[in-house]
Fold:
Amino acid sequence: MYDIKALYEAESLDHAVRLLQEHPSAQILAGGSDVLVQVREGRRAGVELVSIYMLDELRGVSIDEEENIRIGSLTSFSHITNDPIIQKYINVLGEAVDMVGGPQIRAIGTIGGNTCNGVTSADSASTLMAWDAVMEVTGPEGVRRVPIKDWYIKAKVVDLRPAEIQTAILIPKESYEGCFGHYIKYSMRNALDIATTGCSVNVRLSEDKKTFDRVRIGYGVAAPVPVRAYTAEEFIQGKEITDENIKEFAETVLKDINPRDSWRAGRALRRHISVVMAERALRESISLAGGVVNG
Structure:
């Protein structure tokens, strides 16, 4: 059933890094919801695995000394959805990962696995893009931090160097303070399906709730990797909360996305959906932030 050459169990983070150095062809096993399925299908036949599943130091959500929200890479989707810090500051992330698979997958699947497999359809990816997440990785040279905009190199390839492990995902205070967001997933089925397209928006409004102080928008399956629609963000910056500005913002996202044709959906449909989702997600974010759309 499982063609595995060897399985090494890491006892600490340092031990995990040493195991990866000693076995350079080995792959990391976290929750196993992707890796073990692929092994069983024969796509990773004869693989060596380094399991980090028992490293509780990589689990949980906290606020660190820099006031970043710190999400350990082994934190499960269900934990994230129910965590009080997530619910208070970035509830949209909990809502997004609650759309991954079914309850069993959400109980075992991890945020680190979801971002390290590099797929553009990952439900967490567009929201983390929109919240300017920073990836913390640990390896032989120590700890380094990678802004999420630099994390995704190409389809299914992320900025992990030999013997490195993603240890946490950080959301800076500037990215979550006073911000409210909404995620929309479009898929062929209502459950147990990957996204045909995903869109995540968050806003911070002016003190009088009449203008946009800041808007961020991220997409999945709108390019080979998760992307931000920077042109649309720049367009809406500082503008009044009006129906006209919202609609133009949504149309402007087409300047930044490049969806593909696939058996799930054609490029034209994905472009259309992306505009509709941008408008709906922005309107919902405005409402969550206490704003009202004029005209």
